[in-house]
Specification:
Layout (H helix, E strand, L loop, with lengths): L6 H14 L1 H6 L2 H6 L2 H34 L8 H16 L7 H18 L1 H26 L9 H4 L6 H6 L2 H4 L1
Helix pairs in contact: 1-4, 4-7, 6-7
């Protein structure tokens, strides 16, 4: 990643771009291909997929801060807000399913989340389709170069393409499209 020492800021800016101008990001992904940054395509896809999870965590943290700052005074302990929150928390605890500890269950949950996002979010679907298209095109081109003996034309995409059960594949399910 020459020229980009601050990877985290780079990815955050791309996530912002996807949130505010998804078509712009999707149509400019070809630049990453020209630079040979195939792994970055997967990282962008992964981070965009994680947005709803991160936003839900942040929202809950802000809600908790607000509640703690307001309800820590003894005279407010019996306020309606505190009582409602306590009831809500109690109901959640009753309904809460045991924490997922089995690796297989975690993978299934992640796969369901990825499929749901792909089916219900057209902007994510466009991004996913373009990234998978890039990998398919480059892998096909590399195979043709290999068969014709033009080894110098082979790109690094095969090295960076996610394999089945790799971390990117279990999160984004991109292998099923590439295969």
């Amino acid at each position: 990643m020459a020229g980009r020492p601050n990877k985290e800021a780079f990815y955050k800016s791309l996530v912002w771009l996807n949130k505010n101008h998804p078509l712009t990001l999707a149509l400019n992904l070809k630049v990453f291909v020209e630079l040979g940054w195939f792994k970055d395509l997967l990282e962008i896809l992964y981070r965009v997929l994680q947005i709803p999870i991160d936003e839900a965590k942040k929202e809950e943290e802000e809600r908790q801060k607000l509640r703690n700052s307001y309800c820590n005074w003894p005279r407010y302990w019996s306020c309606d807000w505190c009582i409602d929150e306590a009831k809500e928390k109690e109901e959640k605890e009753k309904e809460e399913i045991k924490p997922v500890t089995d690796v297989r269950e975690v993978r299934i949950a992640r796969a369901k989340s990825a499929v749901d996002r792909y089916q219900n979010d057209p902007e994510y679907r466009l991004l996913h389709d373009i990234v998978s298209e890039v990998f398919v095109e480059k892998l096909t081109s590399d195979l043709l170069s290999l068969e014709s003996g033009e080894i110098e034309k082979i790109s690094s995409v095969s090295k960076l393409c996610p394999s089945i059960d790799s971390s990117y594949d279990t999160e984004t399910l991109i292998w099923f499209v590439i295969d």
